[in-house]
Amino acid sequence: MHHRTKISFVATLAGAFLLAGCVVSEKDAPADSAAVSSTQPLPPAQPMPMPMDSANMAMGDTSAAGGMRVEVDLTARKLTFYKGADSTETYPVAVGSEKWPTQPGNWTIRQVVWNPEWTPPDESWAEEREPRKPGDPKNPLGRAQLVYDPPRTIHGTNQPSSIGKNISHGSIRMRNEDITKLGREIMELSGVGKDSAFYRGVATKRTEKVVVDLPRPVPIRVF
Fold first, then answer.
1. Are 187 and 215 contacting, i.e. CB atoms less than 8 angstroms apart?
2. 200-214 core/surface letters (b: 16 or more CB in 10 A; e: else)
3. The sheet that has 152-155: what strands, in order across it?
């Protein structure tokens, strides 16, 4: 009897020891285990700090997606630039003729070209036309160009009297002072703004073509 009692006591003591060894205290447990198994209420999660460049990019993306876009009304011959939900600018434009209509649709503006050069497109109306260098008075693209669906683009003009008419070969024409203002604003809101020296340079060095790719393309709807 005493021998059985001693064995039972030893077995009970060993079981208690093993059970105690299986319990992991919050102090000794890995952080992820404690987060899962703890019955105490957890403190509110703290947001991870975002690097400044990433934060600015995220804000810029939200701004662009939240409203920055260009819309062209072919019937009204108006271009509207939406900077955001409550900020718009409207400009008169020339659009395609009945024979060479401006194509409706949705695209994105991916480049701003300052002092563009003109290469005749592979279309019948341009067969006998000559290329025109940047700054050439006969260059039909004027001072700047917004590229969205080559060869059709939004561009300046050397024929300001055509604005407001359906007279182009499919592209959208703006007055030079309007396209340069629009191009500058699109660059700044797309994250590639330049200082005043840049804009003075492209205005005075008219024979030098400058291409600026937009890191955040701008939606455009033509209808």
1. no
2. eebeeebeebbebeb
3. 87-92, 78-84, 69-73, 210-222, 105-114, 144-149, 152-155, 172-173
CATH of domain 67-222: 2.40.440.10
Task: Return the domain boundaries, the chain.
Answer: 67-222
What does the pLDDT profile of the chain (223 residues) look like in tens digits?
444 444 343 344 334 333 334 333 333 333 333 333 333 444 444 444 433 333 333 333 434 444 799 999 999 999 999 998 778 999 999 999 999 999 999 999 999 999 999 999 999 999 999 999 999 999 999 999 999 999 889 999 999 999 999 999 999 999 999 999 999 999 999 999 999 999 999 999 999 999 999 999 999 999 9
Looking at the whole model, is its pTM more than 0.85? no
Cα angle, residue 110 at apex, residues 139 and 157 outer, rounded to 5°: 20
